[in-house]
Inverse folding.
């Protein structure tokens, strides 16, 4: 035990938590910031519709 052990544990926990937040914020930004924030606040996620006549077939 001791102060150094507590510092080490808190340092690791802090950087794990910060890393978790950074990764998740980047995921929200990369997948469409405003649409994701809107879905978190309102519960509605907007899906873009394809144009008429568009086909997935190659």
């Amino acid at each position: 035990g001791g102060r150094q052990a507590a510092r080490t544990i808190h340092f690791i926990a802090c950087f794990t938590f910060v890393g978790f937040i950074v990764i998740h914020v980047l995921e929200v930004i990369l997948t469409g910031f405003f649409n994701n924030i809107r879905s978190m606040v309102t519960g509605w996620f907007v899906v873009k519709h394809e144009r008429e006549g568009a086909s997935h077939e190659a």
